[in-house]
Amino acid sequence: MRVFRRPLLRRLDRYLFRQLLAGLIISTGGLAALIWLTQSLRFLDLVIDRGLSLGVFLGLTGLLIPSFVAVILPITTFIVILFLYQRLAADRELTALRAAGCSPFTLARPAFALASLSFLACIWLNLVVVPASISAFRQYQFEIRNRIAAFLLQEGVFTPISNNFTVYVRKRDLNGTLHGILVDDARDPNNQATILAETGRIADGPRGPEVMLFNGSRQVIDPRTGRLNVLTFAENTIDLASATRSSQQRFRDASELPLGQLLHPNPATVSRRDMPKFRVEAYRRLSSPFTVFSFALIGLYAVLAGSFRRHGGFLRPIGAIGAVTALLAVGLAIADLASRHPSLMPLIWVHAILPGVIAGWLLLGPKISIAAILRSPRVGTP
Questions:
Q1: Which pLDDT score is estimated for 382?
Q2: What CA–CA distance (Å, rounded) separates 71 from 76?
Q3: Which residues in the chain land under pLDDT 50?
Q4: Residues 327-365 as b or e (16 or more Cβ within 10 Å = b)
Q5: How many separate helices (H) and strands (E) can be counted in the chain?
Q6: Which residues partner with 157 through β-bridges?
Q7: How many angstroms separate the Cα of 2 from the Cα of each of 25, 99, 112?
Q8: Model confidence over 100-122: pLDDT tens digits?
Q9: Any idea where the domains of the chain sit in the sequence?
Q10: Which neighbouring-strand residues pair with 326?
Q11: CB 348 within 8 A of CB 335
């Protein structure tokens, strides 16, 4: 007999879904902020050593947040579902709902709705947002380390603009004038030069940053005769952009490429040895959203399935946490093995989908009693 009418079921679904959604937003936001805080410490040298502003630092590291959210969203979905339903069991709300005739499927519907929302968010993040944000992050970091750094010469510090070009500045005025400049230019191994200048200024030229030197000298040792040649000048301009020309080409990683280029890489730019890595990255983006359903079903099975306990139990939830932790570790191992052995790539899909299928069948599938089968009469038995 059905005790709950349809309006009451809708109200129950809304009540549970609101709590699940609020918990998901809070837990995902808090965990993403914690991961961002720990990972952003790696880039503090850009602020301390390079003199970048706090706004540039936040803009650079903020581009990493979508990738953090894409990774932790299946985990936080599992945690929120497990925590909420376990709390309902501890508060005896599940007891009342089950006594009123609610089936496991009825109780799990809000969790399925939340998992579907997380699934769509993961697809959008993996296929659109994360590749674009990582590409923007790498490009921004490249600009800072190779171009913007030329504007950030510090007093009393040898600043390496590139591996073969170093600039030293004794003092910098408030108006930007540099004093006591030394430049070690080893871009041409056969014509290495040391440049000294009394003053100078940095300007943005047509090809990038330039430094204008005043009242200085250029010293070069002739490699054939060993003589020191000194050339004095009243004004000279050095193109700092050419100092980093060897590193101007930035090769894009697999994590930055769109899905189409991962599935069909260009043989002219990607070696045959790296093609399995591109395919693994594509499969990972497509399969990881399905782990949302797998983890959610594992959490639901831990709370809603099995023998009913009035005050709830903690053995199954602890087992569910251990199972999800093991699945995360196995997923990393499978991705690493598949990149080296392409024949193992189907395991990426098996790992993402099979645990959810098993948990869903155990939770919602037909209940077959082994004792009833043993007690049933066999054919031909008198």
A1: 42
A2: 10
A3: 1-3, 245-248, 311-312, 368-382
A4: bbeebeebbeebbeeeebbebbeebbeebbeebbeebbe
A5: 14, 6
A6: 169
A7: 34, 11, 22
A8: 777 788 888 999 999 999 999 99
A9: 6-146+252-373, 153-243
A10: none
A11: yes
